[in-house]
Design goal:
- The protein has 321 residues and is an alpha/beta fold.
- It contains 11 helices and 13 strands.
- The chain has a single domain, classed as UDP-N-acetylmuramoyl-L-alanine:D-glutamate ligase (3-Layer(aba) Sandwich).
- The strands form 2 sheets. A 9-stranded mixed sheet has the order 5-4-1-8-9-10-11-12-13, with helices on both faces. A 4-stranded mixed sheet has the order 3-2-6-7.
- Helix 1 crosses helix 7 and helix 7 packs antiparallel against helix 8.
Length: 321
């Protein structure tokens, strides 16, 4: 199956699980702690790799020890980091994430505001052979270069649009095929009396598929060939950190694999739910075997054939037959 390039954010997360947030500042003992890679694009690439896909991350980190930790975490997941560039003098972004017993979060992040923005070093010649390009819109220059090249070669482009990246949407909307919003970003950045009006406005701008992730309320979308609503899957919630990133990564892999919008949304929603079982953005990411079994249990229908092949399950099934 063709690779997926993911453009955007790479960071290191420090996660702490506590029983409850105190009513005022005080000392609180953590029930659990985890240090792992973070960042929307990096987490999405990791979700793709866990399912057996071939993600290539185009990103920037600092030339510091934290940047090395970010690279090692990605390598462990199977993400191609050949073009995760260490920028001289830059500081790798970090985040402190505190999660209570209900899964509610407090996120404190720090970004290097002088990270170089130039994208002239990107290997754009790779784009023609891709299945899809996904961006979290955190790096405008890189996204514009990759999306423009993808458009020239008919490669689908997928934009992950949250509150932070939504301010840049106007700069890339003309190159975006699949625009997937968080609920707050959908309401803030797209004008319209309701979801239908907002979807229509996006289609008028050339977007083929517009959707909004709504947490427990599922995924609502509208495409050129129809519309739909994917209900969320109920699981015990430990931590929702990275659930949206998992959704975007698996959705992009589904599009790269030739799935319909409905099938891609179904697989992505299940992957996002399973991620929430564990603390952190990466630890709960499902393998193809886990995702297939979960979908069979929940719906009576497992992973679509292209994603089974990505995870090696189709070959395994043939061998057992």
């Amino acid at each position: 199956m063709k690779p997926v390039i993911v453009v955007g954010y790479a960071a290191l997360d420090h996660l702490y699980r506590i029983e409850a947030f105190p009513p005022k500042p005080t000392k609180v003992r953590a029930l659990d702690h985890r240090e792992d890679g973070g960042g929307a694009a990096s987490n999405a690439a990791s979700a793709i790799a866990m399912l057996g896909g071939t993600p290539r991350l185009w990103s920037r980190v600092g030339d510091d020890e934290t940047g090395e930790k970010v690279r090692r975490a990605l390598d462990r997941c199977g993400v191609d980091t050949a073009f995760v560039v260490a920028c001289d003098g830059a500081i790798t972004p970090t985040a402190a994430i505190v999660v209570d017993a209900k899964g509610e979060r407090l996120v404190i992040s720090e970004d290097d505001r002088v990270m170089p923005m130039d994208a002239g070093w990107l290997p754009l010649g790779q784009v023609a052979s891709l299945g899809a390009v996904l961006s979290d819109l955190s790096w405008l220059e890189g996204t514009q270069a990759a999306f423009a090249e993808a458009r020239r070669h008919g490669v689908p482009t997928v934009a992950d649009i949250d509150l932070g990246g939504g301010i840049l949407l106007e700069r890339v909307i003309g190159l975006t095929d699949y625009a997937i919003f968080s609920a707050p970003a959908f309401e803030k950045f797209i004008d319209g009396a309701d979801a239908g009006a907002r979807f229509a406005a996006l289609h008028a701008r050339g977007v083929q598929h517009a959707g909004v992730t709504r947490g427990a309320r599922g995924y609502l979308w509208s495409g050129r060939k129809g519309a739909g609503e994917q209900q969320s899957f109920a699981v015990p919630i430990v931590d929702t950190t990275g659930a949206g990133d998992a959704f975007h990564g698996v959705f992009a892999l589904g599009i790269a694999s030739g799935l319909s919008d409905t099938a891609a949304a179904r697989a992505a929603s299940a992957a996002a739910a399973l991620k929430c079982r564990r603390l952190g953005a990466r630890l709960g990411l499902p393998t193809a075997i886990e995702l297939d079994a979960f979908l069979l249990e929940q719906t009576g229908e497992g992973l679509p054939e292209p994603l089974l092949a990505e995870g090696g399950l189709a070959a395994a099934a043939d061998a057992d037959a």
